[in-house]
Amino acid sequence: MPRRNRPFALFALGLAGALALAGCASANAEEPDDGRIHVVASTNVYAQIAAEVGGDLVDATAIVSSTAQDPHSFEPSARDQLAVQRADLIIENGGGYDPFLDALIEASGSKAPVITAAEFSPDWPENAGHDDEAAGSEAEGDHEHGDHEHVEGFNEHVWYDPHTVQHVAEGIAAELSALVPAETSAIEARVTSFAAGIADLEASLAAIATDAAGADVFLTEPVALSLVEAAGLVNVAPEAFTEAVEEGQDVAPSTLLESLKLLRSGDVRILIANSQTGGAETTEVISEADSLSIPVIEFSETLPDRQTYLSWMKANIEALAGALHP
Asked: Angle at CA 257, nearest 5°, toward 251 and 263?
């Protein structure tokens, strides 16, 4: 079942109707004003980063937070729509990853500033390298929603690139400072601390690159590709395999056979799968890797319970390093 390219207009129309009903039901309910900035993010990855940067200043809500939920196929609720309607700041991944949030913004009529993480990536098509000033957050009212289709050739899983995430955190800090200028110094101190944590992650990735540069790994889909590349590892999975799995389609028999031959070659050091998606072909290559004593690592798309972004990425990097030296 394809996970992308759902009819956006019909989706947004349905949300608009549900939002109107939800709005009527809560029109007389007074929302307590706790003085905090209400941040809504598409996933708990970005909500946690916002909480890290904003501290007690923010109340961060994630639309998708369960590691059992595939964000690509998520269907939002009326509660989600109201959260977006009341948000002071919105954070999305972009790049076609979370179109449900664009639909919620459009249906709610929200004018809150929007931070689009994908646009902070140096690989974003409109970036000539990374432009801290141009990428990411749009001025109020300037952000066009509903046009964030999957971008061909762009790996939208940008939260697995610590360098990009540092710039996302800086973008969040800039928006929070604009909303509450009196808290700028405290916000800047927190984002500086977060950047130090990112530097530690990058140092660990560099150590893997020094130790095992060029080692072959097999990714069933590109969710953790940025992390793998930062570690100097090479994804040798056939592009047709990863594309089919990512799109929720069947892998062609010839492609599956090619993949199994790769695993049997003895050159693949690690198989990396997505713990939140998969299919029969993914199960088959995992089983084959297990039979060949190739270490298998599963990475998720959302933040596991009781983890911060930094602790989660640290654990993922340690898993990579450990799998290279079982």
From this structure: 110
235 beta partners? 217
- pTM for this one? 0.84
Domain ranges of the chain: 8-198, 213-324
Angstrom CA distances, 300 to 98, 274, 315, stand at 15, 6, 12
How far apart, in whole angstroms, are the C-alpha atoms of residue 124 and residue 119? 6
Per-residue pLDDT of the chain (326 residues; tens, 9 = 90+): 333 333 343 444 444 444 444 443 333 334 445 789 999 999 999 999 999 999 999 999 999 987 766 676 788 888 999 999 999 999 999 999 999 999 999 999 999 999 999 999 999 988 765 444 444 444 333 334 334 456 777 899 999 999 999 999 999 999 999 999 999 999 999 999 999 999 999 999 999 999 998 999 999 999 999 999 999 999 999 999 999 998 889 999 999 999 999 999 999 999 999 988 778 999 999 999 999 999 999 999 999 999 999 999 999 999 999 999 87
* 3.90.1170.40, 3.80.10.10, 3.40.50.1980, 3.60.40.10: CATH of 213-324: 3.40.50.1980
Say if residues 53 and 190 touch (Cβ distance below 8 Å).
yes
Backbone torsions φ then ψ of 94, nearest 5 degrees? 80, -175
Strands 216-219 and 268-274: parallel
Which CATH code of 3.40.50.140, 3.20.20.70, 3.40.50.1980, 1.10.1740.10 fits the domain covering 8-198?
3.40.50.1980
Distance CA 269, CA 322 (A): 11
164: phi then psi, degrees, rounded to nearest 5: -65, -40
